[in-house]
Description:
Elements: E1 8-9, E2 13-17, H1 23-32, H2 34-37, H3 51-66, E3 71-77, E4 86-94, E5 100-107, H4 116-129, E6 136-141, H5 146-154, E7 158-169, E8 172-182
Parallel strand pairs: 5-6
Antiparallel strand pairs: 1-2, 2-3, 3-4, 4-5, 6-8, 7-8
Helix pairs in contact: 1-3
Amino acid sequence: MPTTQPSLSTARLHLLPAESAWARAMLDYQVRNREHFAPWDPTPGGMFYTELFWAMRMRQREMDWKESRGALFLVMPEKEAGRVIGTVSLSNISRGVFQGCHLGYNIDHEHQGQGLMREAVEAVIAFAFGTLKLHRVQANYQPENERSAALLKRLGFQIEGHARDYLFLNGAWRDHVLTALINRNYDHTPLQA
């Protein structure tokens, strides 16, 4: 992995790495989307809607990159530099015989239905398969989340199963559909663990 997490760009977006300097922008993003994210996220704790929390969260995501565990990208429109309208993350990066990770994403309620999440996720998948040389990206969603189901299907993710009571979100255990995308151009040259 590169020592510094790179920025990514698409036709309409900039995807910037997590840094503590973005704490206020992330807080603003979360506050704007509080109701929108509630059905899909854990119930936030008392500190969640504070700039201090987001400064600490961004520092943790920076550390995840440095320790080769994950990468968080803040999605910003090309025409609105500094305004976070989404995030895309690679977490639980595992090497050795697995060479895979989990994909996570969310987008501002005002920017749904414009193809922006697909644009951002495609860029991060290309990064995962290209720069990080991963073989597998997994993504899971709640069965009633039709937008996530449609996005992952359009991106080529295949359903691999269903997990009952998979994550504790919004005050209850929630079932999830398990999907994955395989890197068909994976370089099978032996890697070090």
